[in-house]
Amino acid sequence: MVVQHARRAALFLLACVVSARVAAAIPDGLLPNGNFEAAPATSQLNGTRVMGRYAIPHWEISGFVEYIGPAQKQGDMILPVPEGAYAVRLGNEASIRQLLNVTRKAYYSITFSAARTCAQAERLNVTVAPESDVLPIQTVYTANGWDSYSWAFKARRSAVTLIVHNPGVTEDAACGPLLDSFAIKTLQVPQRTKNNMLKNGDFEEGPYIFPDTPWGVLVPPLDEDDYSPLSPWMVLSSTKSVKYLDAAHYAVPRGAHAVELVSGVETALVQDVRTVPGRPYRLEFSAGDAGNGCVGSLAVQAYAARGSVKVAYQSQGKGGYERGALEFTAIANQTRVVFVSMAYTMKNDGTLCGPVVDDASLVGFRNNAARRLLL
C-alpha cells in the first residue's frame, strides 16, 4: 500500500512538472525586454558601449554591443529607434542571446526590427540550435530605414537559446546593424482543405506582426530545407525578401493577411504540391495592390507545370485586385506553384513595393470531362 501511494505521488509530481513546463512556454508577443526598454545600469555603460555580459536585462551579450538611446548620433546622422526609446547595435562579431522556454517539437517564428548603419552589405546570423541562417538586410524597404524581419525554427528542446550575431567585418568596429522589437509566435502547421490542395493558400498563418508597426514583416530567402515563417510557402532568392502584410495597415484582398512581392523578378514565392501526372488542375489567385501608394502596372506571373498566366493589374495605389486563373496538366508527382512580380516598382518616397498575392487555391479533376462539368 505504501509503495502504491508513493508511485501515485511520484506520478502526480511528474504530471505537475510536465504541466508547469507546458504552462511556462513563452506566449506570443514581445520577448522579455524584447524592445530593450529596461536599460543597463549606468555603471555597466562606457558611453554607449555595454560592458557587462548580463548588463541588459533578460539578454546576454558578447563582443562590441552598444545601447542606443533617443537622438543618438553617428557623425551627423541621428540613429532612429523604431519602438520606444532604446535599441541595441551589434559591432563586428558581436551577438545577443536569450533563453526561451518553448514547447518541444512546436514551430515558432521570431520577428525583429533591424536597420543598417554605416556598413553596406550587412547581414545577421540568426540561430536556435541546430538551425541557423544568415539573413541579408542590406536592402531597405521602408522610408525610415527600419524593417521587420521574420525567421522560423522547430524547437528541439523545451528550453532553447535564440542568438543573433553580426558576422560582418568592417574598418569601424561600431559599424553594425541596429536591432529592436523582438517577438515570438507559435506557428500552426497548415493543412490541406477539401477545396484547396495548397496549404496556407490564404496566407493567414505567418509571422508575428506588431500591432503598432505599419510596415509589415519581411520573409527573407531561406534554404529549401528550412522551415519558413510562411510555411509551406518558400521564398527563393539570393538576397531579397517578400513582405507579409496585415489588413490593419494595408488593403488585403481577403482575410487578415496577404503577401506583397516587393523585389521584382529577383524573388519567387513557391509551394510544392503533390499531383498526379496527366491529371488536369486549376490554379486561382488574387493579384492587386496593398493600398500603400504603389502606383503603376503591378504584373504577377504564375507558373505551374508547363503552364503560366500573367495578371497585369493597373494600380492606383488605393487598393483593389483581380482574380487570375491557370489551367494546366500535371507532368510529375510533384508540381511547383510559383508567383513572381514581373517588374520593379517604387513609391514616391523611393521605397520598393509591388503586387499583392492572396487567396490562392488549387483544385484537381479526375479528367477533362469532370473539369468541364465543374467549371
UniProtKB/TrEMBL annotation:
Domain of life of the source: Eukaryota
Primary subcellular site in the record, as a coarse category: other
Pfam families named among the record's database cross-references: DUF642 (PF04862)
Upper classification of the organism: Eukaryota, Viridiplantae, Streptophyta, Embryophyta, Tracheophyta
DUF642 domain location: 29-185, 197-360
The protein, known as: DUF642 domain-containing protein
PANTHER family: OS02G0527500 PROTEIN-RELATED (PTHR31265), OS04G0494800 PROTEIN (PTHR31265:SF7)
Sorted UniProt keywords: Glycoprotein, Secreted, Signal
Signal peptide: 1-25
Subcellular location: Cell envelope; Secreted
InterPro entries: DGR2-like_dom, Pectin_Meth_Modulator
Keyword DNA-binding: no
This protein's GO CC annotations: extracellular region
